[in-house]
Amino acid sequence: MKKxxxxxxxxxxISFSAFSDDKAAQDDIDELFEVMQAExxxxxxxxxxxxxxxxxxxxxxxxxxxxxxxxxxNEKMINLMRAEMGWVQMKGDLKAIYSQNFTAxxxxxxxxxxxxxxxxxxxxxMPVITQESMMLGQQMATNAMSKIQAIAQQLQNELQExxxxxxx
Length: 168
Description:
92% helix, DUF2059, signal
């Protein structure tokens, strides 16, 4: 009986310690998000979506007299994005992602980095770097798209030839 009580007490202690460590790790992730200004980065993301919607407007050829119609739908899209992809909606899932991919020690080191002057500089410059990187990626994808479409057309032609031969 004493062994059973000892084992129960040990398991309880281990569980409590793991819970305490987990709580501390979760608190560190919260602090990391705060130091990283994660919520502010999400707001920057909305600005990038705004630029994407402006490109869509140009592609649709929206005329000056159609702007009220466009603005109505643009507002709906932005509101939907904020409702579906806001910080409140993302935070819990992001915490889980960080918990699964970083150890408590790594989170502590990230905190040290982001609290440092270099880390703060990184945070300050990251939105511009992200935006410029996205623009570069879009430009590269646009340049590659015609080549990809040509290869896809070759594939389709060869498949049709193969199917025609198989049918004979």
